[in-house]
Amino acid sequence: MSAFRRWYQPGGTYFFTIVTYDRIPLFAEESARTLLGEVMRSVNEQLPYETVAIVLLPDHLHAIWNLPNGDQEFSRRWQRIKSDFTRLWRRQSGREATTTASKQRRGNRGVWQTRFWEHLIRDERDLEAHFDYIHYNPVKHGYVKRPWDWKSSTFRKYVASGHYDQNWGRTEPTHIQTMNPE
Fold first, then answer.
1. How far apart are CA 133 and CA 117, in angstroms?
2. What is the residue range of 60's domain?
3. Is there a domain that residue 178 lies in?
């Protein structure tokens, strides 16, 4: 667990779940995955954060971020990511779910759920559990048999650094079996 010490920042490490509107499988499209990456990098230049871990599934994503000391404005960052992505996606004629007239009047488009799940990482054990949860998630949802086979994730980065073995995650780690931040 000592490897987690360098990623955990007291008061500034957060786990997120962000979901598409009506769980449309928006990120099954390569163009949507590419655009999201571009938007996240652009927002990061203006409102810095460190992505410790991330997994992008067809209808949602999970991420762990470190924010700069004294900065807890993760909502502002996600709002910018979601609004910038939506604007650019619609400009590309990307698909979106049908929304009600009242949602449209409030500016809500059929791309993202309005809210998101956020969890302040409490300590190294909590970080380890969420870190493993992120990387195991494509297996949990039945997309692949092992995390290595899912490319839209930081799992391969952590295999290369020696944190994970390439075959990790063929079975669900016991310490994440009761987690469900979906």
1. 14
2. 2-172
3. no
